[in-house]
Design brief:
Structural class: alpha+beta
CATH class of the largest domain: Alpha Beta
Strand content: 35-45%
Number of domains: 2
CATH architecture of the largest domain: Roll
Oligomer: single chain
Number of strands: 16
Order of helices and strands: EHEEEHHEHEEEHEHEEEHEHEEE
Radius of gyration: 18 Å
Largest sheet: 8 strands, mixed
Strand order of the largest sheet: 2-3-4-1-5-8-7-6
Length: 295
């Protein structure tokens, strides 16, 4: 079954600049490794059980060769050229082979679960399985089952989870659409869940259908007024645009950002009455990054 959102992948034009910008935002970022044969490399920031990934093209020629051979992410260079931002959302499974069978039983076009991995600097190997949706269901999500324990995975970066901004988990990620009802119905089939009723979101200024996947939420939204979702839809078209993180202290997070050259994040009140703040795309390599929690 699907257990949570595993991570969001944010495409950036330059990995070191991306690391620097997200460090200014208060994330404990670390270069993670290269992807042989794909021409890309990444950096990660671990939370308690999920993580944030920055992805960049490392070798354009190698990347173009992988694109010609049909590797996934074939338009990553164009996506980055258009401003970057959240490229994909990973949904974690505890039995990916079974979930693939179940999705196919619901009429979803999805590939087989394929094993992958890479070796850490200390010689230990990280292993996982992934599955991606096919051409008939081109949604910005993919599925992952980790074959390496979380405790081991967290050792690949020093101080995992110790973020100056106090972030400890991914709360939600949002996907903007021109038709949230229809899009939510498709995601319900993909995930094997009931379609949530739409309700009014007051920070992203959208009608929202929120799929609760374990402790995390996947939101399909449609703007009803100017705001972050409408801006993302106008700039980039339908797709992921925001990740919302829960922090132990929004005041401390805001102070860290200001002390490191970022403007104060915009403030708002969620539909449940909680206060939230939002860092905007010009300071986050193309994404909206939200924070929610106590002052």
């Amino acid at each position: 079954m699907f257990t949570c959102l595993d991570h969001v992948t944010i495409a950036v034009p330059d990995l070191q600049q991306g690391i620097a910008q997200y460090t200014k935002m208060g994330f404990n970022m670390h270069a993670a490794g290269i992807h042989p044969g794909r021409g890309t490399h990444n950096a990660v920031a671990f939370n308690t059980g999920d993580y944030l990934e920055l992805l960049a093209i490392r070798d354009l020629a190698e990347y173009k060769a992988s694109r010609a051979s049909g590797a996934s992410g074939s338009s990553l260079d164009a996506f980055i050229a258009q401003g970057g931002g959240i490229r994909q959302i990973a949904v974690q499974s505890d039995n990916l082979d079974a979930d693939v069978v179940a999705m196919r039983g619901r009429g979803i076009d999805v590939g087989d679960a394929v094993e992958g991995g890479r070796r850490m600097a200390d010689g230990r190997e990280l292993r996982w399985k992934t599955a991606v949706l096919g051409a008939k269901n081109p949604l910005p999500v993919f599925f992952i089952q980790h074959l390496t324990s979380l405790d081991v995975r967290r050792t690949q970066v020093p101080g995992a989870g110790a973020h100056p901004n106090g972030v400890y988990k991914l709360e939600r990620s949002y996907i903007v659409s021109n038709d949230a009802e229809a899009e939510a119905a498709l995601y319900a089939r993909v995930l094997g869940m009931e379609k949530p009723e739409l309700h009014k979101g007051t920070v992203v200024m959208s009608h929202m259908a929120i799929f609760e996947i374990g402790p995390t939420g996947l939101g399909v939204v449609q703007p009803y007024a100017p705001g972050p979702a409408a801006d993302a839809l106008e700039r980039r078209g339908p797709g992921p645009f925001q990740a919302l993180y829960r922090t132990t202290g929004m005041g401390a997070a805001a102070r860290w950002m200001e002390e490191h050259g970022m403007p104060p994040p915009k403030r708002g009140i969620r539909s449940n009455g909680e206060h939230a703040m939002l860092a905007t795309p010009e300071f986050t390599c193309g994404a909206y990054i939200g924070f929610v929690g106590p002052e």
